[in-house]
Amino acid sequence: MPRKRLVLGVLGAVGALVLTGFAAVDASKSTAGATPRSKLTVMAPAAPGGGWDLASREFQQALRGESIVNNAQVVNVPGAGGTIGLGQFVEIGPDPTQLMMTGTVMEGAITVNKSPVNLLDTTPIARLAEDYEVFIVPADSPYRSLADFIDAWKRDPQARPVGGGGLGGTDHLLAGLAARSAGIAPEQVNYIAFAGGGEVLTALLSHTIEVGISGYNDFRDQIEAGTLRALAVSAEEPVPGIDTPTLVEQGVDVALPNWRGLVAPPGITAEQRQELIDIVTEMSTTADWKEALQRNKWVDSLLTGDDFTDFIREDQARVDAIIEELGL
Description:
- This protein has 328 residues and is an alpha/beta fold.
- The chain has eleven helices and twelve strands.
- Keywords: Signal.
- InterPro entries: BUG, Bug_dom1.
């Protein structure tokens, strides 16, 4: 009898937050007469250096490299799994020169943080790509394989702290799903939430946590340098360029892609939305973007317009159901 596999179509300082928030608002106020082709501002709803920031800047570079947009900017609005940025973004007004990067992490944060707004309060433009999570340990960890960790995890889940991003985000969901698949009650998982991959790395190297979970690119340099050892990747099938077995290959029947996509503010016209879709579609064919996909080990998953809206509706419902089921 085939196994049931759960695959989700796949989360600073106050002064910095205030400044970046005003940057987004000021940008929207200074776009009188501008069009998406002349000026485009992309909000990365996270601190510099994270996954949304990376995706935003790769998108920006692809737009610039082929002169698809004359002036493409990125602003950062960190906090609460992206929901602070989301809250600001929906208040911008119907400005077609504004986009926000989003993804699976924000869906979890919307539910856990009881956000008064969600992604369907925006204008969905396009899903761009999927990347993957890894289970990671320090090089001196006694866990040489995922099986080693799971054996210890089963014996005493509370004594095996697992660290990752915000509560309800992709990292947290993956920890709960992996635990359940391994026969551990998700509520028993000793999950410690951090602001980003940098803090997870520090906690790993100081042995504050035993295992870290985050996007592959958060740890890629340390993996390649031998500072960290990857135990498993959350893809359903092996990923070219990532020399790490999947959870599925190791008997943990869970796969969790982490998608990245773009939304516009609410209220823009159908013509403005189509122009943004055309810009993103054109960008997706550029050499710069194809190189970014390969370099970052992302999988192209372009989905635009109403199809993307339907995907968000379905994916948010799945994430909500999993959060409730796992008691997160």
